[in-house]
Each structure stands twice: as structure tokens, then as C-alpha cells.
Amino acid sequence: MATPEDLMRRCFALACRGAGWVSPNPMVGAVLVCEGRIIGEGWHQRYGEAHAEVNAVASVSAAERPLLQRAVLYCSLEPCAHYGKTPPCVDLILREGIPEVVIANTDPNPLVAGKSIARLRAAGVRVRTGVLAAEGRYLNRAFFTWIQQRRPHVILKWAQSADGFLGRIGVRTPISSPLAQRLVHRWRAEADAILVGTRTALVDNPRLDNRNYFGPSPLRVALDFEGKLPLSAHLLNDKVPTWILGPERPGHWQNTRFWPLPARQPDGRYRWVSFLLEKLHEAEKGILLVEGGADVLGQFMALDCWDEIRLLRSQQHLHDGVQAPRLPVNALLRERWRVGDDEVCVWTRAEDT
Ligand SMILES: NC(=O)c1ccc[n+]([C@@H]2O[C@H](COP(=O)([O-])OP(=O)(O)OC[C@H]3O[C@@H](n4cnc5c(N)ncnc54)[C@H](OP(=O)(O)O)[C@@H]3O)[C@@H](O)[C@H]2O)c1
């Protein structure tokens, strides 16, 4: 017989199907169980559309609908109690007469934050919380950042050679294996925006889209404070939504938006990180993937403005080139695995565990 933890893991697996489609909403999965048998399952599939609980209830066959009054609803996140883009899930649970709810995480959103649990309990529903809470929080770490920090979840990502270089100076240098590059495209599909610095844009001429995995492509963002990018650059092809932090360039732009910044600071540098995060927040972009180069990654670290670091370490040696950034002292290794010949490591902030 499946334990509550087994059923919560099933909720997490269902929740993951929403990756890339629901941000800045949380990924949520729900399972309905009656007398040890799953009678319904659902997940939050797209931003603005039905929540996991609604889809789980809808998946129960007409013949089994009466079983809901004896069922347990497992849900990876506290159901909502407010009118957002959809009606409150608490109303649905009460209307269907579901007598018991098991939850991994209380919703950090102040509009919910325990209110649903209180309403359910007040109506006589048994509610158990905290089942695999740490795993649930890790799964939805981007959502927690979005709500608690009021900015996108910042993921710093790079690939480095075995001897610690990002690439040869001034030359596009492939470092990761094709399999690892496919993983990077999956990460792109799951992000809402992707950023590179001026030199990366000039040297690599990246497309920054998701060509090698299922799912959408993120908003492309590039730094070009001095308007140095050639109009022939992929990032200026105007084919997909793109933001350029820099002066407007001549042309009839449909998908490209320019954000001129105030003048350089006395140190000769621009202040742009908080400006960008604010604009991304306004545009409801919940996850920012920063793909380098070293200078840009270093600026996020210097401001201590990062939530996650993903590193692909190859076995090849470059002997010289652009030095890879050093990990912050508060980086805590959370995952490590191999993709083909490369090693993948994921760190989060030690204080976030
Ligand atoms: N292996 C990997 O994962 C990976 C990923 C990305 C890039 N790369 C490699 O890394 C190299 C590029 O890295 P990088 O560190 O040299 O450059 P970068 O981080 O891509 O861009 C840095 C440049 O952006 C501009 N910039 C950024 N912040 C600024 C600020 N606050 N004020 C003024 N200007 C600012 C400056 O351009 P100006 O100097 O023009 O003023 C600065 O030199 C390339 O060789 C690329 O191939 C490797």
C-alpha cells in the first residue's frame, strides 16, 4: 500500500509536467485516493489555467464521482482560497465533500499563506501539512523566490573546462557535449528569460532559443550599453521577443525592445542588475537564466543576487582563456550527476535549505 510520502512524490512528478508552462505560478500536482486506490490525478498545466486540484477532480470518472466523499486529496501545495485567474480551489474541495487533504507546503503567497488550511479545518476537513515539505520547497524554489523576494529566481549557469576556463579569449569555444547542450536547452525551456553579456553576444553570436528540447523559448536579454552589437547578430534578428539593455538602434522593430540606461557611473560601469530584475518582475518573468560570460556572472555574485548555480564541467582541458567564476562561499551542493562525458552540479544558497 502506498504511503503518504509515495503519494506526495507522485504529486511532485505530476507537478514537474508544468515546468516551463506555469511560471511565475508554482508547479503543483494533485492525487485523489480512495481506500488505497488512485481515482484521479491532475497538475497545473499552464499559467492562468485550471489548478491541479481542479484537474484532478475533473479526471475522476462519472461512476467514481461519489467516492470523492470518502477520498483523500494529496496536493503538493496548499490549495488557493482567493479569486485569481481561476476560482478558489478550497470552494471546490468543500463543494465535492472531500473529507481529508494532505499538503507538502503551505503557500508562501500572502493571499493564501495558511488561510485555505484554516478554512478547510473550520469546515470540518482533516488537513495534514508538511509531508515531504523540504522536497516540495526545492521543487518550487523559483516560486518561493518570486513570492518572498519579489523578483525572478536567478539561475547562474556556465560550462567550464576541466582546468577551469569558460572558453578561449575572443573565440567561440564549444565546451559541453551535445547531450549536455540538450540539457541546457531544457533549462532554457523551463526559464522565462535568458541573459548574456556584451562580449558573449559578440564572441559567440548566440541565438539563446530552445531548439533541442520540447517546450517554449525564453525572452532573450542582452547587454549592449554602447550599441556595439552588429545588426547582423542573431540577437538582433527581431524574430522572437528580445530585450536589449542599451540604446535604441535604427530599424522597424516588432519583437525587440531597447532599454537605454542612464549614463555610466564614476567607475565607468553601468548599474543595471536591479533595473533588469524590476522590469522582469513587472513583465511576470519568474525565472532568469544567466548564461554568462564571466563578467556578468560575477556581477550577480558580487551583489549576492543569485538563487541557484548550475555548472557543466567537461573533461577537456583548454590550458588558457576566460577564467570561470569562483563559487560563492554560501553555495551548497544539492545535485550532482553525469550527462554523457560531462558532470552537472547544482548549488543553492545554504540559507535556503
Ligand atoms: N562556457 C560558458 O558557459 C560560457 C558562457 C558564456 C560566455 N562564455 C565565454 O565567455 C566570454 C565572455 O565573457 P566575458 O566575461 O568576457 O564577458 P561577458 O560577461 O559576456 O560581457 C562582459 C561585457 O559586458 C559589458 N558589461 C557588462 N556589465 C557591464 C557594466 N556593469 N557596465 C559596463 N559594461 C558592462 C562590458 O562590455 P564592454 O567590455 O564591451 O564594454 C563587459 O566587458 C566569451 O569568450 C564567451 O565565449 C562562456
Describe this structure in words.
- The chain is α/β, with parallel strands linked by helices.
- Helix content is 26%, strand content 24%.
- It has two domains: 4-142, Cytidine Deaminase, domain 2, CATH 3.40.140; 151-352, Dihydrofolate Reductase, subunit A (3-Layer(aba) Sandwich), CATH 3.40.430.10.
- It is built from ten helices and 16 strands.
- The model has no long low-confidence stretch (mean pLDDT 95).
- The protein binds NADP nicotinamide-adenine-dinucleotide phosphate (NAP).
- NADP nicotinamide-adenine-dinucleotide phosphate is lined by residues 158-159, 166-167, 172-173, 175, 196-200, 203-204, 223, 225, 228, 269-270, 272, 291-296, 299, 322.
Write the topology of this structure.
Blueprint: H1 4-16, E1 29-34, E2 37-43, H2 52-58, E3 72-77, H3 89-96, E4 100-105, H4 115-122, E5 126-128, H5 133-139, H6 141-149, E6 153-160, E7 165-167, H7 178-190, E8 193-196, H8 198-204, E9 219-223, E10 242-245, E11 256-258, H9 273-282, E12 287-290, H10 294-302, E13 308-313, E14 322-323, E15 331-339, E16 342-349
Parallel strand pairs: 3-4, 4-5, 6-12, 6-13, 8-9, 8-12, 9-10, 10-11
Antiparallel strand pairs: 1-2, 1-3, 7-14, 13-16, 15-16
Bound molecules: NADP nicotinamide-adenine-dinucleotide phosphate.
The site of NADP nicotinamide-adenine-dinucleotide phosphate has 28 residues, from β6, β7, α8 and α10.
